[in-house]
Amino acid sequence: MHTNELTYTYEILIENSNKRDEFFRTMRMMIKDMMDDKEYELASTWKRNLKLIEEDIYSLIGDDFIQGRNAA
């Protein structure tokens, strides 16, 4: 994935809570399917990466929220 695509994806996930919920729900279902197919190593990698993405997204949302309050 190119940097611009990743940036665009993050922007969508930050700005749109419905898309964000759908993204995380879909990714968790994909990980569950991997576990069901006994692809444990791949599922573990995706689970770890998803956790990092989730932490990153919510830290950015928190920063934006705090900056917005301080600007007011």
What does this structure look like?
The protein has 72 residues and is an all-alpha fold. It has one domain (3-71). It contains three helices and no strands. The protein has helices spanning 3-15, 17-36, 40-71. The longest helix has 32 residues, at 40-71. The N and C termini lie far apart (37 Å).
Fraction of residues in H or I helices = over 70%
User: Taking all residues together, what is the mean pLDDT?
Assistant: 84
Number of strands: 0
Largest β-sheet summary: none
Total separate domains: 1
Are there runs of 5+ residues with pLDDT below 50, and where?
68-72
Brief description of this entry?
Helix content is 90%, strand content 0%. The protein has helices at 3-15, 17-36, 40-71. Helix 1 (3-15) crosses helix 2 and helix 1 packs across helix 3 (40-71).
Write a concise keyword list for the protein shown above.
single chain; mainly alpha; 3 helices; 90% helix; 0% strand
Q: How do the helices and strands line up, and which of them pair or pack?
A:
Blueprint: H1 3-15, H2 17-36, H3 40-71
Helix pairs in contact: 1-2, 1-3, 2-3
